[in-house]
Specification:
The model has no long low-confidence stretch (mean pLDDT 79). Helix 1 packs antiparallel against helix 2, helix 2 packs antiparallel against helix 3 and helix 3 packs antiparallel against helix 4. The chain starts with a helix and ends with a helix. It folds into two domains: 76 residues, no CATH class; 69 residues, no CATH class. It has 147 residues and is mainly alpha-helical. It is globular, with a radius of gyration of 16 Å. Helices cover 73% and strands 0% of the residues.
C-alpha cells in the first residue's frame, strides 16, 4: 500500500504546497522509507502552515488532510484517520462537487472499518444526497451495515 501511495504522490504537481514544500517533500520521503510517525508529523506541520495562510477548508488543506489520513491508517491509527477524513467531509459539505461525495464515501469506508455504529449514522444522514454514479457502491456499503 505504501509503495503505491509513493508512486501516486510522485506523479503529481505540488505547486499548491509552495509555502510548506520542504515539510511536504520530507513527508513523502519518510513515507517511502516507512518512517510513518515522522511523515505524519511533517504533514501535521504542513497543515499548521495552511491554517496560518488562511487555507482552512480549501484544496491544499483538504489534500494534506487526506494524505495525513492515509499515513494514519497505515499506522493503524483508525480513530485519527477517521477524524482527518471527517474534517475533509465537513470542509466540503456545503459544496456541490464530486469531491464532496468522494470525501463522504472515504469517511463511510473508514468508519465501516473502525466504527460501525457511526458508519450507520453517517450513511443514514447522507443517504438521499448521493449522486447516481456513487449509488451502487453506497448501496453495497449501506447493505453491509444493515445486515
Amino acid at each position: 500500500m505504501i509503495q503505491r501511495l509513493v508512486k501516486r504522490f510522485s506523479s503529481k504537481n505540488y505547486e499548491e504546497f509552495y509555502y510548506c514544500i520542504e515539510e511536504f517533500s520530507e513527508g513523502l520521503k519518510l513515507i517511502s522509507t516507512d518512517q510513518l510517525d515522522s511523515a505524519e508529523n511533517m504533514f501535521k506541520a504542513c497543515i499548521e502552515k495552511t491554517a496560518k495562510k488562511q487555507f482552512l477548508g480549501e484544496n491544499p488543506h483538504n489534500t494534506l488532510l487526506k494524505y495525513l489520513a492515509v499515513v494514519q491508517r497505515a499506522q493503524g491509527k483508525f480513530q485519527e484517520c477517521e477524524s482527518s477524513l471527517e474534517q475533509v467531509a465537513n470542509n466540503l459539505q456545503h459544496k456541490n462537487s464530486p469531491d464532496k461525495y468522494n470525501a463522504f464515501m472515504n469517511l463511510i469506508r473508514q468508519t465501516l472499518h473502525s466504527n460501525i455504529p457511526k458508519a450507520l449514522i453517517v450513511s443514514q444522514v447522507h443517504k438521499s444526497s448521493i449522486p447516481a454514479e456513487l449509488k451502487p457502491e453506497f448501496n453495497f456499503l449501506y447493505g453491509v451495515l444493515n445486515k
